[in-house]
Specification:
CATH topology of chain A: Serine Threonine Protein Phosphatase 5, Tetratricopeptide repeat
Oligomer: heterodimer
Largest sheet of chain A: 5 strands, mixed
Shape of chain A: elongated
Structural class of chain B: alpha/beta
CATH topology of one domain in chain B: Rossmann fold
Distance between the termini of chain A: 56 Å
Distance between the termini of chain B: 63 Å
Number of strands of chain B: 6
CATH superfamily of one domain in chain B: ABC-type transport auxiliary lipoprotein component
Order of helices and strands of chain A: HHHHHHHHHEEEEEEHHHEEEEE
Structural class of chain A: alpha+beta
Largest interface: A-B, 58 and 46 residues
Radius of gyration of chain B: 32 Å
Helix content of chain A: 40-55%
Chain lengths: 380, 218
């Protein structure tokens, strides 16, 4: 019966090959519904790095529809709060830093398509996902998203100064340059390995984020004789770890207390029952009370073992750690661009160098997305 | 003695029954409530576009578009420059600006206002198909080159100029607190005189939505 209760999603997880472009579409199509958005996020990020922007758009649009519709009663979320289901029962939409990144990627794609106002809407939604932190100073504090919100406003002929001021205030890692309305090529660059989740606590009820070692710390964009170096604007590990506790952490904490208490009561019942039942001769009152305590203890232990306080550690595991940008003024036409990545000591990491042919259109901005995991060479 | 002991045993067992029953009931109830809701899915339900469906968020949805565009179309028809115009005013749509946090296909607003006016205004206004200029110019070239027939002189420019531009802006104010999220969207539309740049009409509507996600997502 308890095993039956634990079974939630009828669809089993799909076997993985290790190739995200095979595993992602397969998991989205055939895997558990609760993991659908997770795989859409992962596959979209991988598709962006391959220059398959239409595919990324399709997955992100679907994922953002799920993300935008989580308000009100939600069956899978209700189950995730119940004593006997793990948190991972719920439909995955990600922690705020993951949700913010989904909007950020979609914003880049809108801008690539010549829709800066929809791109701005996405950057705003990305910031909105980071609002409502325990500590106000960490709320909506992505410097890059604020900066891009202002830059899109400038590109739309509006005033971006408020957003620029907020970006400067939020910027902890680098100094942001003032907007250059004439710059027509914007490089949005990501590098490093994003945070991963793990669970700690007696029953794995506490969600934690692991900082992964990331060799690249800066990026350099070279076009002809122009070279721009860009340090990180935002750090996703910082973003993941500065939001404070979640409401769900309290729910999981209560589950853990319940599990611990029922286990202790079970132990007491079983031991006391066994002592009483075995102490006297058959059919004595103590014997019967002992059997009763034993039964109650066993049931309590059953409850305890069925209680699942484990935190949800599903992670969008191909996110970068750092986000940055660089903009240039280039004439329309084809340009050979090299993007290099450097470590903390400023040393070049040759294996990460990307060669990109950028086609700058007439009368429109060119948005170039580059990751240290992008395929190379690319023509964009 | 035997019967007394039996009775006593039964009493003991009986006293344990409520606990056992409660435990079993709790377990059974737990399992029963864990069934998947709508395991067979929900059949496709046809809804009116102005209805709020069971799939809803705090963003811009079909019922908002219908409500706002219906209101704007009614107001446009009642303004004196349209209602009492000597000739038939020609309108060109200028893309609206999305200044909210919701990425949307913003053309849908003006398309619906145009369709409403075209279907219900009985020729009181006409819209110019500026978004089809490429096709129209190609057709004109074919006529001029004699590759296709023409019912009038193809060398005379007959493409009309606009009397008015219809455009608009969507602006938003989002709020998130521990109590939930709130999204206010202000929809404003203007009819601009193409000759003088006067805004001859401005209409607006505003919609505020609030929601709170399940604690599992907070």
């Amino acid at each position: 019966m308890l095993a039956g209760c634990a079974t939630v999603d009828r669809k089993p997880a799909v076997p993985l090959t290790g190739d995200i472009m095979i595993d992602g579409p397969n998991a989205i199509e055939n895997g558990p519904e609760r993991d659908r958005v997770l795989w859409q996020y992962r596959t979209a990020a991988a598709a962006m790095r391959r220059g398959e922007f239409e595919l990324a758009k399709r997955y992100l649009d679907d994922a953002l529809l799920t993300l935008g519709g989580i308000y009100g009663p939600n069956e899978s979320a209700r189950k995730a709060r119940s004593l006997f289901r793990p948190e991972s029962t719920k439909t995955f939409v990600g922690e705020p830093y993951e949700r913010a990144m989904a909007y950020f990627y979609r914003g880049i794609l809108y801008w690539m398509d010549g829709e800066p106002d929809n791109a701005r809407a996405c950057f705003r939604s990305a910031l909105f996902e980071d609002a409502g932190t325990e500590e106000e100073r960490y709320a909506a504090d992505y410097a890059l998203f604020e900066y891009l919100e202002g830059l899109t406003s400038v590109k739309l002929g509006e005033d971006g100064s408020d957003a620029f001021e907020r970006a400067v205030k939020a910027s902890r890692l680098s100094q942001l340059p003032p907007y250059d309305p004439k710059a027509n090529v914007l490089f949005l660059i990501e590098f490093g390995i994003g945070p991963t989740k793990y669970a700690t606590g007696q029953y794995g009820e506490q969600l934690r984020f692991r900082e992964n070692p990331s060799a690249p710390r800066t990026a350099a964009v070279t076009v002809g004789d122009q070279k721009l170096t860009a340090g990180a604007c935002d750090d996703l590990y910082f973003q993941a770890t500065t939001r404070g506790g979640r409401v769900m952490d309290h729910v999981l904490g209560n589950k853990a207390v319940f599990k611990s208490t029922t286990s202790t009561l079970g132990d007491v019942g079983i031991i006391s029952g066994a002592v009483l039942a075995g102490h006297r001769g058959r059919n004595s009152a103590a014997d019967e009370v002992g059997v009763g305590l034993l039964a109650a203890g066993l049931i309590s232990k059953l409850f305890s073992s069925a209680t699942t306080p484990a935190a949800d550690t599903r992670t969008w595991d191909n996110l970068p750690r750092y986000l940055t940008f660089a903009f240039l003024s280039l004439p329309p036409g084809e340009h050979a661009v090299t993007v290099e990545f450097m470590d903390a000591g400023g040393r070049l990491i040759p294996s990460l160098t990307k060669n990109i042919t950028v086609n700058v259109p007439v009368g429109r901005d060119k948005i170039v997305f580059v990751s240290d995991r992008s395929t190379t060479p690319q023509t964009l | 003695m035997t019967s007394h002991k039996t009775l006593k045993s039964w009493t003991m067992i009986n006293s344990r029954l409520p606990l056992t029953s409660v435990v079993l009931a709790a377990l059974v109830a737990g399992c029963a409530s864990s069934g998947v809701r709508n395991p067979s899915g929900v059949p496709v339900t046809e809804m009116r576009a102005d209805e709020r469906g069971f799939v809803a968020g705090t963003g811009i949805e079909s019922q908002d578009i219908v409500r706002v565009t219906d209101k704007m179309a009614r107001e446009i028809l009642s303004i004196p420059q349209i209602a009492n115009a000597q000739g038939t005013p020609r309108i060109v749509l200028d893309p609206i600006k999305n200044d909210t946090r919701f990425p949307i296909n913003k053309d849908i607003f003006l398309t619906r206002i145009r369709a409403q006016l075209n279907s219900k205004a009985q020729g009181k206004v006409l819209f110019l198909a500026r978004d089809r200029m490429g096709t129209l110019e190609r057709e004109q070239q074919l006529k001029r080159s004699g590759q296709v027939t023409s019912s009038s002189d193809p060398n005379v420019v007959e493409f009309r100029g606009a009397d008015f531009f219809l455009t608009g802006t969507l602006q938003g104010l989002p709020t998130r607190t521990g109590a939930g999220i709130s999204d206010y969207v202000l929809y404003t539309f203007q009819l601009i005189d193409a000759r003088t740049s006067d805004i001859i009409w401005e209409g607006f509507d505003e919609i505020k939505k609030q929601g709170l996600e399940d604690a599992a997502y907070r």
